[in-house]
Amino acid sequence: MIAYESQRVARWYLELSLILFCLQVTVGLWLAVNYAFTLPQGLVDVLSFATSRAIHTNTLVAWLLLGFMGGSYFILPLECKRELYSVKIAYAQLVIFAGTAVTAVVGFLFGWTQGKPLLEIPVPLDMLIVVAALMFVFNVAMTIFKAKERSLIQWMLLSGVTFLSVLYLFGIPFFSNLNADYYYWWWVIHLWVEGAWELITAAIIAFIILEVTGVERKVVEKWLYVETGLFLFTGIVGTGHHYYWIGAPDYWLWWGGIFSALEPVPIALMVLDTWMHVKERKNPIVNPLLWTYIIGLALFHFLGAGVFGFIHTLPQINYYTHGSQITVSHGHLAFFGAYALLNLVVFYFAFPKLKGIEKFDEKLGVWGFWTMVISMVFMGLIFGVAGVLQTYLERILDIGYSTAHMSMMFWFKAVLFFGVIFLAGVVTTAYHLFSLKKAEA
Length: 441
Prior knowledge:
Radius of gyration: 21 Å
Number of helices: 15
Largest sheet: none
Structural class: mainly alpha
Number of strands: 0
Oligomer: single chain
Distance between the termini: 18 Å
Order of helices and strands: HHHHHHHHHHHHHHH
């Protein structure tokens, strides 16, 4: 069912990404246990909260990037109508990236870390990531340059992966001034999520919508121009909502607040865009589960990244909620809605083709989808309730962190409960993808 032999390299990326997804959620449950119960010190010493958090967040980044890379390598030959420039480079890049990720996780267990939240990987490993990123950009660029025809999707994807690679460089050096260090730290953390990753998302989802629906390319690209322009317009300046507390000039309160408020606009247009494609599609939907994931991506993206981000990042609100469990609520809903679901869209688009299956049995996959979505909604809401309680106790009543935490433990136990259900959904989905079978006639 694949059109080009070089597409097969994507399978290794996607399968490893799926395994790391399961690992990331499992470690997340251990973090929830740390929040919900007072653990014996001996147990804490074996796997501390700081180490677990580093593994949880860096594994998140690793499996998402592997999914982006695998998805890019799968759709590029189809979009460019030619084989990948170099399959050897793609495999070498995978070995470097995966080997670095495994080494980083093992290193965290032994305290080998540079300490920056979400960017804990030590500098020597950073250099290897840079090498892998350059190989990826080169392979994507050469594949596009050697194509006979050019398209907006090609350039959007190339821009996204290049932007992603360049921004990573700003998280490597240390600055003697902590405010300056965090200023550039946000260039990686925010501009990845609100800039580079959004470009990649737009390119990948636009291509898959074209393939699934048969909608005319000009219809998809028309919306793609608008959405991408707004993503960059609001996302880049919207970085300022992270500057409220790091000693940046006062004008960022205005710029960050205004543009952060505008960030839901392109996501809302993405929801509208998806709905327009539903109405205008020409092809019958062969695998409804894939289309369910596409719609779920658009709606959850709007809810988690857009609505919750808007509520949380206005200066008048962020003054009280900064760094609370409300941040955790927004983070979980946004990452799952915007990027975890994107990767799962890629998985359900690519795996059947890689296995030579046109229409697959989707019963188990449907269970996995709804289990993940419903449990994540509850987790996000419960984190939000805990965050409101935390904000009131700590920032309004001025109660100490430890005392306030004791009042929140019920809600953390509830998060743990739904976290277990979410893990069940993840494992079910992974099993379904690995054991994908043809639907019965």
